[in-house]
Each structure stands twice: as C-alpha cells, then as structure tokens.
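quick one: cytidine-5'-monophosphate bound model?
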Amino acid sequence: MSRPLRVLLGISGGIAAYKSAELVRLLRKGGHEVRCALTRSAVSFVTPLTLEVLSGQRVYQEEYLAATGSGEEEHITAAAWGEVLCVAPATTHVLARLALGLGDDFLTTTALAFAGPLVVAPAMHSEMWRKEATQQHVETLRRRGVWFAGPVEGPLASGEVGMGRMAEPEEIARVIAAAAGGGPLAGRTVLVTAGPTHEPVDPVRFLGNRSSGRMGFALAAEAARRGARTILVAGPVELAAPPGVIRIDVTTAREMERAVHEHAAEADLIVMAAAVADFRPRQAAERKIKKEQGLPAIELAENPDILAGLRAVAPRAVLVGFAAETHDLERNARTKLERKGADFLVANDVSRSDIAFGSGDNEVTVYRREGEPVFLSRRPKSELAASLFDLFAARLFR
Ligand code: C5P
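yep, here:
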C-alpha cells in the first residue's frame, strides 16, 4: 500500500458518478484523506451529503461557493491541499476543458491551480469516446503526462456493451497511488522504445517486422509504476499507452532516432526494446508501384543503429538493448553487448512461437557488462518487465 495521501477527487456528471462514492470509501480505507469537488451536473447523479459522510470532509460545490462568496480563493486552497487530483468519472466535457485549460468552474480552476499529478477516469458511451474530438483531447492530456485509469470495455449505461465504461474503483485507486510517485524510481527519467518500425516502399507498402510492442509497453508501464518519469517512443502498434507515460509515436527508424536523441540526455535509463528495421528502401516511390511495371528492384539503405549511437548522446545513462535472434543466441547477444556499448542485452529467441514476437509471454537471458548472465524463465511480459527492472534498478543505484 502507498503512503497516506491527500486526494482531491473531482466528480463530473455521468452515471458512473455513483461509483465515486465507493472510490471515496476505498481511498479512506487505504488510509488516504479525500476531499470531493462536484461539478454542477454531478449533483444530479450523486448527492453531496453521501460524499460528505463518506469522506468526512466538506464537499466543494459550485452552489456552496456562490453562497459564501469564497470562490475566489477556495480553488487555490484546495489545489495547495491536494497531493493528487483525480477526476472520476471524467466526462468528455471535462476532458475537453482540462485539455484546453479552461477554468469555468470549481473543478477546472482547481485543476489549473494544481501543480501535482492529475489522474482521470473517463466514462462515456463508446461513440463519444471514439469521437475524434474526444480522442484529440485524450492525446493532448496523455502527452502532458496525465494518468489515465481506463476506460474499459464492458456494459454501458445505454445497455450496449463497448468501450467507455469507467475503470473499477480499485483500479483507479491503484493509479492514484502510482501517480503520487514515491516509488523507487521517483525523480528518475526512463526512456523506452517499443514496437517495430515501418520503412515505406511506396505510399501503401512498407518493410516491417512482427514486433507487437507489448514487451516495450510492459516495460514502460513498469517504469511508470515505479514512479519514474517515463517517455515511451512507440513504433506503429495497436496498444494503449500505459497510465502516466508520455508517449511519442513514430513510424520509421529515422523518426525513432530523432525522438530518442531529443530525450536521451534527460534519461537515466534507456531501454531499447523496439525492433528497429536495419534497412529501408533507399527511395520510397512517390506513387504506388504497379504490377504492370514488372518486378520492382528495391534498393536498400542501412538505417542508423540508434542504440550504438547513444553512448555519445547519453554518456551517463544505463543503456539496455534487446536482441531478437533465431540462432546462436548467446554469441550474437554477447557481440551486440560489446558492439553497441550497452550495459544490458536482453536476448530472446524469436524462432519459438510460444514466446517473444506477438506473444503475451517471454523468456529471456540477460547479458550484462558486469556480472554473469541471468536467465528469466517464461512468464507474462508484465511480470518479466518487473524482473528486468529489478536488474536495471540495481545498476542504476549502484
Ligand atoms: O542489431 P539488432 O537489431 O539485433 O539489435 C537489437 C538492439 O539494437 C535493440 O535494442 C534495438 O532496439 C537496437 N537497434 C537500434 N537501431 C537499429 C537496430 C537495432 O537501436 N537500427
């Protein structure tokens, strides 16, 4: 359990607001102090009295502030009091206001005045969640390092089943604790790359590989869970960013290199889990290559080796490479550890279909600059990420 926190809980007007009462109860049970702020429309879904009794604190409401005339300062006091601000449920309207920096009620002015970590638990109909406008605001918030708890797939208020259901209170409480930091990597910056790169052949085709990005995403999630400021440079993958992670999407190896170089100097630990394409077509055709033109000859050019070039950019960072091998695992891994100047080289066997590429599990051997190799037997990638971070962290704190 995390240390006791002062949690500001913003509740906006959606049917999931009834679950916020449960969230308050859960947080209190965990030893945290909670102060609730209700938007005008939230009052239609959950009563201030319920929250006042559960939290043991006066509830912030628009009407209350208007009546006392204390609206001017109250949001500043509340913002200074809280260590974490969580908005659950967060309607699409609140997400938009947070993304745009609008301050037109108690909750949003408090959010503007608040300097700590922000957690949001969106809840809405799947059509509203999918809407481009909503997704753009979500993207803006994620880029700013806002922590997302959910939404998840499941039954919606409309009776349909789909994406947009609020995360369960237990999950929201867990994200609140993670966002409050205090984890072993608090104050550290971790940069992770994940997924494949796509190298365009023409406007519709590319050279790529079967990396799903799951190992890298699991590593980024673990870094954030341990309290690190986490930057995830992701190739083209179909995965949601883990809570609290700053995500930068790229497509090609050269874009990935630019993004990594931009942030490498800030990083204490760089984990290159991406399966970067070694080659790209020298020149992508401007128009789609047609069959009638005969068999195309595609000339290849070498991509930059991002990892091998990192020592110069990040002299003090702990560097971790991954090696996907189909044969001679040990010899290839040891050579790469040397040649790329890495501190760790995590080797996995991609000739097996039960682990590595595309699988939920992995089994690896970690070769180290200092110390004997460590074998980590087959387990889910999230668990493996935790074991790997134990090794990396030991090196980081040496
Ligand atoms: O040489 P190979 O691709 O097997 O090395 C794998 C490691 O090197 C991975 O950590 C990968 O992210 C990194 N790499 C890179 N730039 C490349 C190729 C690989 O950073 N062009």
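The chain has two domains: 6-179, 189-397.
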